[in-house]
Amino acid sequence: MGNKPAVFTHEQLEAYQDCTFFTRKEIMRLFYRYQDLAPQLVPLDYTSSPDVKVPYELISSMPELKDNPFRQRIAQVFSEDGDGHMTLDNFLDMFSVMSEMAPRDLKAYYAFKIYDFNDDDYICAWDLEQTVTKLTRGELSAEEVSLVCEKVLDEADADHDGRLSLDDFQHVILRAPDFLSTFHIRI
Amino acid sequence: MLSDDQVNEIIIEVENVPSGVQSHPSSNQIVPEKTLVNSSFSMVSSISDIGVTDSQSFSDWNDKKSRRLLWFPTSLNDSISQILHSPESLGTDIPCTSHENMQGQKLIASLIPMTSRDRIKAIRSQPRTMEEKRNLRKVADREKSKLSHGIFELSCCAQCLNSISLAYRRSKNSLSELLSSVSLWQKTLKVIGGKFGTSVLSYFNFLRWLLKFNIFSFIVTFSFIIIPQFTIAEKNTLPFTGLEFFTGAGYFRDTVMYYGFYTNSTIQHGKGGASYNMQLAYIFTIGVCLIICFFSLLFSMARYFRNNFINPHIYSRGIAKLIFCWDFTVTHEKAVKLKQKNLSTEIRENLSEIRQENVKLTLNQQLIRFSAHLAAWVVSTGVAIACCVAVYYLADNNSQFLQSHRNPGAVLLLPFVVSCINLAVPRFYSMFGLVERYEMPRHEVYILLIRNIFLKISIIGILCYYWLNIVALAGEECWETFIGQEIYRLLLMDFVFSLADSFLGEFLRRIIGTRVFTSLGLQEFDIARNVLELIYAQTLVWIGTFFCPLLPFIQMITLFIMFYVKNISLMMNFQPPSKAWRASQMMTVFIFLLFFPSFTGVLCIQAITIWRLKPSADCGPFQGLPFFIHAIYSWIDTLSKRPSYLWVVWIYRNLIGSVHFFFILTLIVLIITYLYWQITEGRKIMIRLLHEQIINEGKDKMFLIEKLIKLQEMEKRANPSSLPPERRNMEQPVSLHVREHDAARAPDLRFRRSVQEDNPRA
């Protein structure tokens, strides 16, 4: 045990600890999970901060994500270039935000970005349709889907501009106290 | 009118227009004064040959720098773009970085004066990438150290404080690491959450939380009263048969399990060794346990209230919550599919509810409903009272019955009857749901909860009344031990019944549901009923700790076994819940129930015991005293004879024992509560006003945009040839685009509005 080379330098680990909600042990555990996804790609020595990205297909095969209807959006939001391929930093960020220690505002911000499919910083009707379709997996008919989107916009759009801004979204979340416990991936 | 933010939005759209901006040097001057990111500027210059784009391609520009423009107002923090190269390097970039520099420096400036703990908290909650956060941290630390170098005379103190806080943080981290490694059942909870979702998980989390209470109580009682008693334990001469595990009597009567075994003497080992006053130790240990449980419950309840009861009277029967609160903890494939199906059903129900929202009931129907409710309440209260009376009479006659029948197993009759009542009557209450109809389904859950908790608390109440008023005053020898044994038997019988219910009842129900009546299907986990059973058991444990100090240990083992039994039964016999169950609100209600009838009842009973009852004369640590509390009185008396402890006596006589002090304290607390209540009311009014303001601003925006469209159309009709050629190129696709994307009219209007902005400046 004593001769195992360190994965991170002391400063790196401290930086990770200060920038995420994880303890040292959890960070190491997450690193090994990341490494297990692509053992040939991810080096065991991160002291030189290598620029390694695990492709999206491997990320979405993780048991925590593989059946999640939004796994593609989650990977896109947290990846560096929005294409779903994640570096270790992105990986840690993702699970830090989805952990139970993250505050509501932070989670609401990222949930907003996940549901914003076209990345225009507003959740418009099209985004809502995409969300509802992913949630119900084709069980609802097209009219029901558009009815649902209309109702959501009715309820949540405070300034009546036909789409939800981050503030509108946060206002909805405020009235849904379950959000903190449901927007949570345990790893 | 338009706020600054909206003006900023428009200007940003301007600079994103490739061909327009470049031909208007004047617009370049506007830009540095408003929010602009240097990156998009470079983007503009690099793609000027793209020509006209429509708004769809705005979002298709996958340049991460443009997407990182947080130009929509965020409540989190200042809208800062992709930054945090250190401030020096910012200066070397293209002009117009001054604003970005300002924003970055504003953030860093706000971070510097914070303590390191707050700074880390602030950095962690920033919605930025890891790299940005790292740089932020580096820069903030560097600036902080620069500042602290400057202030030389404070450096000593500041460095001291810094190192102390750093050490504290490190120790807290390692402690939390230790705790999380010790944390029980993480993997099991993950599997449960993955298959059944957050709502069923909340039951198991509650069980784990109660287990922590019991572990803590056990450790305290074990260290302070059980171990000292072990050191002077006398030999146990009673015979041991296996039945004692159920009755708690017999062999166990003379063990550390019960009050009667404890000595009232001062334990002293060897001459001149430390003396240990058992009386004081007993009363203080139980007192400390209860006080710490009290504060722990209070803080948990307050935390849950703060997070989950933000505005209870805004009941949103809304559909937005269904859409946005997808349960990310569900990871099992079948569970996800089932959840999607259930969500669709719920959405359909919600849609139809919204359509039927305005159906009013006729007077006749209202009367029928009201009478059904009334009848149900009368029947449920009647049943509860009847059960209480039956239990009381049984308990009363039990003692005579026991004296005539010498069978040691006969003491189990009362616990058996109580457990049967607890098993049958809640299910009977659930059947009322067939008769009663509620407007909102959550009313049904709450009313069922109220009825069940009323039943359970009245049974406990009547038993305590019997014990404290009849048994304690009957002059029986060692009545405390007797009560302890009764409570032990109740607890154990309850545990046996739960096991039987899980092993037999739930299995049978599954076999019936899958083989015999396949239409029934698998059952769903009844969270409310199970949580109430936990609350009932915990109340018994708290009451019984005074009479039977080993009870927390027994409850610990019980909870441990229950976890595994419920887990196995859940995996095999249940299906995931079909309706959304408001887990957070229900948890708040459960913790409140644990606090309000349950724990406060325990405190009342303890208070009555200690202040009003006479301890038995020849067993236990308080033997011979007129009241339990006299142990404290005599201690204070002995202390008052010693000059170095007079402050304790003073505190006791003038603060704890004085009526005036409590009166003033109550008055102050009431005044503070009133003030906070008024502040809350004021804030509610403020929220309403701000909400109206948002709506009004939205209306203003739409009005202005429509007016602009009209003006633009008029101008176009008036002067079709006065526009520069590039603009005409741009106008064509824009107007095409408007026809195509009618639904997304707002961004297009913004686009055209931005064009309009350029025009007067041209």
UniProtKB/TrEMBL annotation, chain A:
> What region holds the EF-hand domain?
144-179
Per UniProt, what is one Pfam family of this protein?
Answer: EF-hand_7
Keywords noted in UniProt: Calcium, Integrin, Magnesium, Metal-binding, Repeat
What are the recorded Gene Ontology BP terms?
integrin-mediated signaling pathway
Presence of the UniProt keyword GTP-binding in the record: no
Is-annotated flag, keyword Calcium? Answer: yes
For this protein, the record's Gene3D superfamilies field holds: EF-hand
Protein name, UniProt field: Calcium and integrin-binding family member 3
Biological source species: Equus przewalskii
TrEMBL record, chain B:
Highest taxon in the source lineage: Eukaryota
Which cellular compartments is it found in?
Membrane
Q: What range(s) does the TMC domain occupy?
A: 478-584
Residues annotated as transmembrane: 209-230, 280-299, 374-395, 407-425, 445-468, 539-565, 585-608, 656-677
Q: Known InterPro entries for this protein? A: TMC, TMC_dom
Subcellular location, principal: membrane
Q: What's one Pfam family the UniProt record gives for this protein?
A: TMC
This protein's membrane topology, according to the annotation, is: Multi-pass membrane protein
Q: Quick check: keyword Transmembrane in the entry? A: yes
Assigned keywords, A-Z: Membrane, Transmembrane, Transmembrane helix
> Which family, according to the similarity comment?
Belongs to the TMC family.
Q: What is this protein called?
A: Transmembrane channel-like protein
Gene, per the UniProt record: TMC5
